Automatic annotation (TrEMBL):
Name of the protein in its database record: Aldose 1-epimerase
Pfam family membership, one: Aldose_epim
PANTHER family for the chain: ALDOSE-1-EPIMERASE, GALACTOSE MUTAROTASE
Organism: Cohnella ginsengisoli
GO terms for MF: aldose 1-epimerase activity; carbohydrate binding
Length: 325
């Protein structure tokens, strides 16, 4: 009997691709028609990713698509007034907050399913694609021919997320990519939940993650490297961390439950936003290619991660998520 399976099902009115690893009792579920969000992942019945209570919740509020699962962000976080300049071109993005553009639109749009399947060699997988040129209303304010392909792969109990972004246009495009996974933390039960992050430096930020100064080594960054109890992290609080180059694994330890969520972040994501939402008992570790609103900051781009993706260029990323006992 094969260990792996990928099946196309309908759940609460939506098309869902489920990935199965029978030997390790791991199940992941992806909803391509809403941002290609991997909204559920469990291993041996233990939740690793925080899903919404019901799938229709995704459609009932414009903010819900980036409040559960693993939203895919382009650009990540906020752009002040929705405007910035890159290579002499001014961009005006629609405001979905009173004064800001937040998290982009690909997390709430339909993605095309290219392939799904399973084998002992490849595990269970699904690959989806998003083309900007299929969405003229986005191209009207972001005139670039970017193509995103994301593969979720369940293999040996681990969830691997492989992202590839190619610029098929003739102009360099501003590049700002991020992910927003939500991890259930159960702090309402009084359980100690220990977060470890390989922090190199911390950026000072506002409660909306806007940068207010240059990065530095901080006492909190040193504490993160050793481990902090998330029960003490403020609700709706956020931090912006620059990750150490030689260690890319973050861990959330569920001490009373006897397991740890481990998250290996690709070196292409130098920055990590920590965020504790008020709408769920969850915690988010958000890998970004740049700091919030980097194109509007008065700092060197090699410091902030602000950069472009040139014509014909492809940028690739691979993150891995698993449970340790």
């Amino acid at each position: 009997m094969p260990n792996y399976a990928a099946v196309n099902i309908h759940e609460e009115g939506s098309q869902v691709i489920e990935l199965w690893d029978e030997a390790r009792e791991a199940i992941a579920a992806v909803i391509p028609e809403l941002g290609n969000n991997l909204y559920r992942f469990t291993v041996s019945g233990r939740p690793v990713i925080q899903p919404p209570a019901h799938l229709p919740d995704f459609w009932q509020d414009p903010f819900v698509p980036f409040q559960y699962g693993i939203p895919i962000l382009y650009p990540p976080n906020r752009i002040k007034n929705g405007t910035f300049t890159f290579r002499g071109r001014q961009y005006r993005l629609p405001l979905n907050e009173p004064d800001n553009h937040l998290h982009g639109e690909i997390c709430s749009r339909v993605w095309e399913v290219l392939a799904y399947g399973a084998s002992e060699e490849a595990g269970a997988y699904v690959t989806c694609r998003f083309r900007y040129t299929d969405h003229p209303e986005i191209v009207s304010y972001f005139p670039h021919e970017l193509v995103f392909e994301v593969t979720y792969r369940l293999y040996e109990g681990a969830l691997i997320m492989e992202s590839s972004i190619v610029n098929e246009g003739k102009d360099e495009a501003p590049f700002a990519y991020g992910l927003h996974p939500y991890f259930p933390i159960f702090v309402e039960d009084g359980e100690a939940v220990v977060l470890q992050v390989p922090a190199a430096r911390e950026w000072p930020v506002t409660s909306e993650a806007f940068v207010t100064g240059e990065p530095a080594r901080t006492a909190y960054g040193e504490q993160l490297s050793e481990g902090v109890d998330l029960r003490d992290y403020p609700i709706s609080g956020c931090s912006l961390i620059e990750l150490a180059a030689d260690d890319r694994v973050c861990r959330i330890g569920m001490t009373a439950r006897g397991y740890t969520i481990a998250y290996r972040i690709d070196p292409g994501f130098p920055f990590l936003v920590l965020f504790r939402p008020h709408w769920a008992s969850a915690f988010s570790l958000e890998p970004y290619t740049y700091v919030t609103d980097a194109f509007n900051l008065p700092y060197a781009h090699d410091l902030t991660g602000a950069k472009g993706i040139g014509p014909g260029e492809t940028l690739s990323f691979a993150n891995r998520l698993w449970i340790e006992h």
